[in-house]
Design a protein that fits this description.
With 187 residues, the protein is mainly beta. The protein has one domain: Ribonuclease Z/Hydroxyacylglutathione hydrolase-like (Metallo-beta-lactamase, Chain A), CATH 3.60.15. It is built from 3 helices and 14 strands. A 6-stranded mixed beta sheet has the order 1-2-3-4-5-6, with helices on one face. A 6-stranded mixed beta sheet has the order 7-8-9-10-13-14, with no helix packed on it. It has a two-stranded antiparallel ribbon with strand order 11-12. It is globular.
C-alpha cells in the first residue's frame, strides 16, 4: 500500500492519498482544504472514494473540489457538513457536499484495491471513525502522537474518548496516521 501525506490548511491537517502499486485509482482520507495541492499530489490517479474520519471543517473543506466522488462518513456527523457551528467552520462556508454513503462499526469496504475496516471511535465527535487497512490505522482526530483530539467541542465526550482510546490501544503494532502532526505505532 502506498500512502502519500499532503499537509493543508491553517491547522495543518493531514490528507492521505492511499493507493496500491500499479493501480491508477486511490482513496482520499480527510481532504481538509487546498484541493489543487491534493490534485497535484494525486498525479494521474483517479479518486474512487473520500473517507471522512469526522465532519469538522478542517477535514472536509476540499470536498467541493472532488465533485461526483463518493463520500463516506458516519451518520452521527452528517449535520457537521450542514451547520457551521457544529462543523466548527470559522469562515462560515456551509453547505459542503453531502455524504453518499454512511459507514458503521465493523463495516468492511473494498475500493481501489484496498480492504478497509471501519472502527467507530466517538469522543472527538459523535461520529468519529478510524479506518483500518491491515496494520495501518487512519485515526483522524481520535489519536495523535502522544495526545488525542479535543473533547470540548459540540458533540465531544471525554468518557467516549477514553473508551475509544482504550480500544485503539489493544491494536498492538498498528501504525497510525493522525489528522494532524506525525504518526507513530501503537505499542
Amino acid at each position: 500500500m502506498l500512502i502519500d501525506t499532503v499537509v493543508v490548511g491553517q491547522l495543518e491537517n493531514n490528507v492521505y492519498i492511499i493507493s496500491q502499486p500499479g493501480r491508477d485509482d486511490a482513496v482520499l482520507v480527510d481532504p481538509g482544504s487546498d484541493g489543487e495541492k491534493i490534485r497535484q499530489r494525486l498525479g494521474t490517479r483517479q479518486v474512487k472514494a473520500i473517507l471522512l474520519t469526522h465532519g469538522h471543517w478542517d477535514h472536509t473543506g476540499a470536498l467541493k473540489d472532488f465533485p461526483g466522488v463518493p463520500i463516506y462518513m458516519h451518520q452521527r456527523d452528517r449535520m457537521m457538513l450542514e451547520d457551521d457551528f457544529l462543523g466548527m467552520d470559522p469562515q462560515g462556508i456551509s453547505a459542503r457536499p453531502q455524504p453518499t454513503d454512511f459507514v458503521a462499526e465493523g463495516q468492511e469496504l473494498e475500493m481501489a484495491g484496498l480492504s478497509i475496516q471501519v472502527l467507530h471511535t466517538p469522543g472527538h465527535s459523535p461520529g468519529s471513525v478510524c479506518y483500518r487497512m491491515g496494520d495501518t490505522l487512519f485515526t483522524g482526530d481520535t489519536l495523535f502522537l502522544n495526545d488525542y483530539g479535543r473533547t470540548d467541542l459540540p458533540g465531544g465526550s471525554q468518557a467516549q474518548m477514553r473508551a475509544s482510546l482504550r480500544r485503539l490501544f489493544t491494536l498492538h503494532g498498528c501504525s497510525f496516521y493522525p489528522g494532524h502532526g506525525p504518526g507513530g505505532t501503537i505499542k
